[in-house]
Amino acid sequence: MRLHARALLYFDAIRKAGSIREAARRLHVASSAVNRQLLELEDQIGAPLFERLPAGLQLTAAGEVVARHVIVVLQDAHRVDSELDALRGIRRGEVSLQAVEGLNADFLPQVLAQMAQHYPGVRVTTRSSGSASMAAAVAMGEADVAVGFALPRHAELTQLAMCRFDLGAVVTPAHPLAGRAAVSLSDCAAYPLLLPGAELSVRWLLQPWLDRLAGQLHVPLESASIDLMRTLARDGVGVAFQTRLGLERELAAGQLVFVPLRTPGALVSELGVYVRAGRALAPALDAFVRLLTEAVARAQAVETAQGAHLR
Q: Which PROSITE patterns match (predicted)?
């Protein structure tokens, strides 16, 4: 069976958009042209690839099989283009990144600045999300690389780098917990808590201990936004929870204090860099991944030094 390249491109656009009309808009072609390519592809496959639902188009079982093939084909085609460009001395390309919001403060800006300096022709597209959705995004080709905390094991992902960070209570310097060397969640429960939403990996780590303290907690805010919780902690509204990563500026400026959690041992969150398993990395993506893994190694060295100092 020979699948036409245009049909694969249009199929992938429909998969991502969830509708023929939106796919056509993104492709800058007529809806009828997109629909025609889809019908021809379905005829060639011998089965419908999408289920027509009121909420939009959803992949059928056959569509899922074709989608996995299309992702591999299109990513390999992009890699070939990038390698040919590299041979011509043209440093250009595109990289799509999905990362947790907490990295936007300091970690990612440093990596992106390095990328722009060394590879000015490469465009990086970033999207912030919780760790829960990252595995599917990389596996389905919606992101080239993901950086997230505590991603569950996934057969279609390869972990390229990993570091461990202590989880801590984040409070204003005037808070009663600010002078402590370490705190338990029972200590924190005496004060208003700013809790991460269920889609954030920090909540997964905290949940067993929160369950034990049920009925004792005052929670004025539950949010998926690390930035919002950090801001409210700085304003003295309550106790937030995160790693030191993303707090660099506030800690250096004395606006916030990080107090390690002990339960009685440390609560540790793992930050990893992930790509799709078995994927050959295009030059632009390979360069970006190398900068990411180097930044992860530096962050781990800083975390290890700070942890040793506290102990």
A: HTH_LYSR
Q: What is the pLDDT of residues 234-270, one digit of tens each?
A: 999 999 999 998 898 899 999 999 999 998 777 898 9
Domains and CATH numbers, the chain: 5-71 (1.10.10.10), 91-158+270-310 (3.40.190.10), 168-266 (3.40.190.10)
Question: Are residues 140 and 275 in contact, defined by beta-carbon separation less than 8 angstroms?
Answer: no
Which residue stretches of the chain have pLDDT < 50? 1, 89-90
Task: Please answer whether residues 147 and 99 qualify as being in contact, where contact means their C-beta atoms are separated by less than 8 angstroms.
Answer: yes
Quick one: pLDDT at residue 1? 43
Distances in Å between the Cα of 179 and the Cα atoms of 173, 182, 212, 304 are 8, 9, 25, 21
Place of tokens 């539950």: 222
First vs last C-alpha separation in the chain: 63
What is the tally of helices (H) and strands (E) in the chain?
Answer: 11, 12
Orientation angle between helical segments 5-17 and 61-87, nearest 10 degrees: 120
Q: Are strands 168-171 and 257-260 parallel, antiparallel or unpaired?
A: antiparallel
Handedness of CA 274, 276, 281, 282 (dihedral sign): negative
SS3 state at 264: coil
Instruction: Find, among 252, 228, 255, the residue nearest to 240 by Cα.
Output: 228
What span, in angstroms and rounded, lies between the C-alpha atoms of 152 and 8?
30
Tell me what pLDDT residue 185 has.
92
| Predicted local confidence at residue 86, as pLDDT | 62
pLDDT confidence of residue 3:
52
Backbone angles phi, psi at 164, to 5 degrees: -115, 135
Q: Which helix (H) or strand (E) holds 303?
A: helix 283-310
Residue 183 contacts residue 310 (beta carbons within 8 Å)? no
Identify the CA nearest to 259 among candidates 244, 274, 279: 244
Q: Chain-wide mean pLDDT for the chain?
A: 87
